[in-house]
Design a protein that fits this description.
Length: about 160
């Protein structure tokens, strides 16, 4: 049975149980993120392909930040609503700082990565961004396909 081999995290051994429920907390920068790979991904894609996608995580993260900046500059309603809600929480919990929507956007950090297949069996790479987990469970999910095309931004909890 093949294992996942990544530049960032090394080898993830994949026994049958890991292929059914792959979930790990992994070091990313100065913090940890959750890494979740759904079972159908292992059923339909080679582990070498999955490893390559994981190695491209820095690109996906940079691209996601650019997408969020562009959405902010275009004043997209869903993003602005999310930022306003999080701004209220930050004003209550961190009153020593002046909060405004752009400052909240800058506060977002990557907290999770999910690999799954959609209803058409196409790969979806989802990057979850959030402010401090102690303050809010709300996330902004930025989704891409394996060809690095943006699929969308969603406010989730």
């Amino acid at each position: 049975m093949d294992n996942l081999v990544t530049e960032e995290w090394g080898i993830f051994e994949l026994d049958e149980k890991a292929r059914e429920n792959f979930f790990r907390y992994v070091k990313w920068g100065k913090s940890e993120i959750s890494l979740d790979i759904f079972e159908d991904v292992f059923e339909e894609l080679a582990t070498s392909f999955i490893s390559e996608l994981l190695d491209q995580l820095p690109w996906f993260q940079d691209q996601a930040h650019q997408v969020l900046e562009q959405a902010f500059n275009k004043e997209e309603a869903d993003l602005l609503f999310y930022l306003e809600c999080e701004q209220e929480l930050l004003e209550e919990t961190k009153p020593e700082r002046t909060w405004y929507p752009k400052a909240v956007l800058d506060e977002l950090v990557l907290t999770g990565v999910f690999l799954a297949l959609d209803q058409n069996h196409q790969m979806v790479i989802t990057l979850d961004f959030s402010i401090d987990k102690e303050i809010s469970d709300q996330i902004l999910a930025v989704k891409f396909d394996a060809a690095k095309n943006l699929l969308g931004i969603a406010h989730e909890s």
